[in-house]
Amino acid sequence: MTDEQKSNPDSDQRTVYQFRIKGHLGQQWMNWFKGLTITLEEDGNTLLSGPVVDQSAMHGILKKIRDLGMPLLSVNAMGHNPKDVSDVQDQQAGNS
């Protein structure tokens, strides 16, 4: 079996992503993004963060953002541990 055919030992772990969109997401859309933490930032943007099962699920989230008509500002992979997201948010809060 070649290296390319070996399964990735981390493949069963969910990657935590952050999706930043321009504008605040209205309350009526909060349930549409179940499983993601929604943070309305002071600068007027919205941060969606949380574990994403796979690339297909990530594209589903991107499609929802597109369907809202809200500009996507950034997408960041944060790692495999939900703790990674809180660490980054704590660091960002300390820099403001």
Structure description:
With 96 residues, the protein is α+β, with helices and mostly antiparallel strands. The chain has a domain at 14-80: 2-Layer Sandwich (Alpha-Beta Plaits). Helices cover 29% and strands 27% of the residues. The protein is built from 2 helices and 4 strands, in the order βββαβα. It has helices at 55-68, 82-95, and strands spanning 15-21, 37-40, 46-52, 72-79. It has a 4-stranded antiparallel beta sheet with strand order 2-3-1-4. Mean pLDDT is 79; it is low at 1-10 and 84-96.
Q: Categorize the overall geometry.
A: globular
Give the averaged pLDDT, no decimals: 79
The arrangement of helices and strands along the chain is EEEHEH
Helix percentage range: 25-40%
CATH architecture of the domain at 14-80: 2-Layer Sandwich
Judged by helices, strands and strand pairing, the structural class is alpha+beta
The strand count comes to 4
The description of the largest β-sheet is: 4 strands, antiparallel
Number of helices: 2
In angstroms, what separates the terminal alpha carbons? 50 Å
CATH fold name of the domain at 14-80: Alpha-Beta Plaits
Which tags fit this structure?
single chain, 96 residues, Alpha-Beta Plaits, 4-stranded antiparallel β-sheet, 29% helix, disordered N terminus, disordered C terminus
In short:
The chain is α+β, with helices and mostly antiparallel strands. It has helices spanning 55-68, 82-95, and strands spanning 15-21, 37-40, 46-52, 72-79. It has a four-stranded antiparallel sheet with strand order 2-3-1-4.
